[in-house]
Amino acid sequence: MHSHDPGAPAHAQFPAPSYVSGTSEQPLLPELATPGMWRWDELHALAEAVPAARLAALQAELQFDDPINIQYTSGTTGAPKGVTLTHHNILNNGYFVGAGMNLQPAQRVVIPVPLYHCFGMVMGNLACLTHRATMIYPNAAFDPAATLRAVEAERADALYGVPTMFIAELEHPEFANFDLSSLRTGIMAGSNCPVEVMKRVIERMHMEAVTIAYGMTETSPVSLQTRPDAPLEKRVATVGTIHPHLEVKIIDPASGQVLPRGTSGELCTRGYSVMQGYWDNDAATRQAIDTHGWMHSGDLAMMDDDGYVAITGRIKDMIIRGGENLYPREIEEFLYTHPAISDAQVFGVPDARYGEAVAVWIRLVEGAELDAEGVRAYCRERIAHHKIPRYVKFVDDFPMTVSGKVQKFRMRQAMSDELAP
Q1: pLDDT of 199-225, one tens digit each?
Q2: What pTM did the predictor assign?
Q3: Which terminal residue of the chain has fewer beta carbons within 10 Å of its beta carbon, N or C?
Q4: Residue boundaries of the structural domains of the chain
């Protein structure tokens, strides 16, 4: 199948404010002197010392496809790599992300995701800058209460976040006391967006036009996005359709052949958004980008007849149990329907008989009670027997990157160590 569209926590020496906003009357973070960094007033003063002729000369030397940013991958599957991105990559992608959510001038966007990550830098800052929207930063580090306060105080139109952030906001003890009626849209991205969480965001946070964006740092980052006017099922169960001026295809990972629609395979992207390469790592670049310019995502996806793409898992996360290919995402989506389960992460662990066995780490809703047998009983007669988790562990938190993405490889290693004889 092929589709183408032409068209850190606050420093201890001062208290973190309730929220940080460029439009609020409350003060911004105190102007501290930090080694190796400029304060805002110092930065402005430096600008006064640069003649206009010098700026014009520098501008004439720069090209749109010169690198502007080395963005490190999040490390969800191992060591991060430096992704080299250009002006052309990120400025255009930010614009199309904003257009995808129908962002309008003077609308307010609350951005609690890290600004050193593509979600905050491109989808947040550059989407707002290219659409003349207002950027609101709730806190020095993610805090669900600060985020909800910022939405209420600023009468925000849009809210960003990874799924775990939205879950934390929805489950905050004071959630019902916040007025979120101004919200219309926003973006959920960064990792798999559970259908049940999307439905709760739409129903309880007034985000009827919330969109899911899919991509990777190597593609600046967004390749696919749901449309606010798409049918509800498409908006909550897929990652949408292809962005303008990009191509995607879904291939057999073994042969490289393009697969028919409705068949799961590896998603690849080609176009303006593809990185220049991994910084100082030509071998990794050649492994990721093929000779025809396609960026291989490592994600398993399926495209329907309408061009909507659903992410079914990651190739590295796929569980092979007794010759059967099991997709953790499918099992996770089912577990989210249990009223006591707040979050679930499914992965494979070594098994002497079947090669791999299904394991799951579960976070419960506050105050809820559930045991491993209760989880298995809920699964019986609802999903296939070989998909029922053999190992169930209840945890308070998952190992995560600083940008809020779950690190399944660390869970797999920890669980394997626990089960080792």
Answers
A1: 999 999 999 999 999 999 999 999 999
A2: 0.79
A3: C
A4: 18-50+67-313, 318-416
